[in-house]
Design a protein that fits this description.
Helix content: 40-55%
Strand order of the largest sheet: 8-7-4-3-2-1-10-9
Number of helices: 11
Radius of gyration: 18 Å
Low-confidence stretches: none
Order of helices and strands: EHEHHEHEHHEEEHEHEHEHH
Structural class: alpha/beta
Mean pLDDT: 97
Shape: globular
Amino acid sequence: MKLGIAMFPADFAVRPDELAVAVEERGFESLFLTEHTHLPATERTRAEVGELPAHFSHMYDLFVALTYAAAATRNLLVGSGIALVPQRDPIVTAKALASLDALSGGRVLFGVGAGWISEEIANHGTDPARRWSVTAERVKAMREIWEKDIAEFHGEHVRFGPLWSWPKPHRPSGPPVLVGGSGPRATARVLDFGDEWMPHAGLPVAELADRITKLRKAAFEAGRTAEVPVTVFGAPAEATHLAQLREIGVNRAVLYAPPADADTVRRFLDGIAPLVATFQD
């Protein structure tokens, strides 16, 4: 099992490049950064989500931060955890991901989700009720751009005629798509437009084990020859729990680092670094 670190890349916290270097130096496999383009300053959103911490409205742009992280490291995988696809133009996002994957030598993991703050989604012109169908089409459209010299897409939410777009990603099929979410349709979404499943921590281990088994069985029946990898996002930094995740077939566990100053984050990473020797393949 691989171990990764996730953090909200707030402008008052450790810089993404400094964080990435610290994560790589301690032997972790990957670094995931989260995304919120903004936090609506309205009573409606406050009623929906409550008072959220400052890091929700203070994040660096996801791909700018990931670029800093990739440029400062040599082997560390850099990932979106998660990219809010309904809030992103698919042609522009395909270009950003292809550029980052090409420049980093194929070190990008594309974690995707549909978002959960209704007004944030709506401010980007997407109906929150349709966010997952929009996500599916946009990811499929990105794949077309990555994989084909002349790409076009004609769907319900995404439509464009023949186009050229370079660079292509380092990997011909593009970065692996890790589908976030733990709802009842997660398996169907992974099979529809994803390569891997990335549920957030919180499911009981027995339930997670059952769902992993069913996902992999469904993938085999759908004709996939490779086992579907599973990343548990936000896993607790506890040896007993991590051992259980490894036992049920989880491929990667991602642990949250606090969105804090560099010294605080380094001390946190030092405290959990022994887990790398115990659990990382």
